[in-house]
Amino acid sequence: MIVCKSKSEIEKMRRACLLVHDILQELREAVKPGITTAELDELAERRTREGGAKPAFKGYRGYPKVLCTSVNDEIVHGIPSARELKVGDIVGLDFGVIIDGYYGDSALTVPVGEISEPVSRLLQVTQESLELAIEQVHVGNRISDIGAVVQKHVEANGFSVVRDFVGHGIGTAMHEDPPVPNYGVPGRGPLLKEGMVIAIEPMVNEGTYQVKILDDQWTAVTADGRNSAHFEHTVAVTNNGPWVLSRP
Ligand code: MF3
Ligand code: CO
Predict the structure, then answer these.
(1) Does the beta carbon of 233 lie inside 6 Å of ligand 1?
(2) Number of folded domains in the chain?
């Protein structure tokens, strides 16, 4: 069941999403060679409390941290640890909060120092695919129009789109209907209606789209060990087109 949100509900989601944005920007600036992913998590947790919010991920199905930090071949759901970031790494930062019962969810992938040209192209193409996806968020389009443009752009650039994880509706729960795949043909699935809010989150791999889950039962890695990137925004469907709640 897809729950459409009122203007005032979307305003609440906007507050959650803007805090997520601010914290992600601070984390992005904190990413340096030598910092551990646990230190990033601690910073995120502190800023969440200071912002009067609750972390969305901690305790979700037993997830132990407030932040997901996915390094290099890790696609999503990497658990912050004593691992030190080093020059040439990329790190996905995926973060969410709850304010007044409403969720915000966003992610970005950040280079650690200087990264190679092909990896920087992976980040750019993934980010572009999210922007193309957002452009599809118009009343009257269908959910699969989003995945179709993502897959087309990604594959035209020689990369692959992860199938095993998808975006999602979001509101008073982090994961609501509908699922929002990053692949497929256009013109299928639910119609976009005013008041729908979705988290669009392309996960793009250099090599195969196949994934493996590590023994921690959370970390999803590429089956071939090559790099992966992830960008995510929470987006509301309005009569004037997309409203990217997680960007000022
Ligand atoms: N952005 C991710 C998602 O939408 C965050 C979930 S991580 C979890 O699924 F730990 F909370 F599961
Ligand atoms: Co999400």
Answers:
(1) no
(2) 1
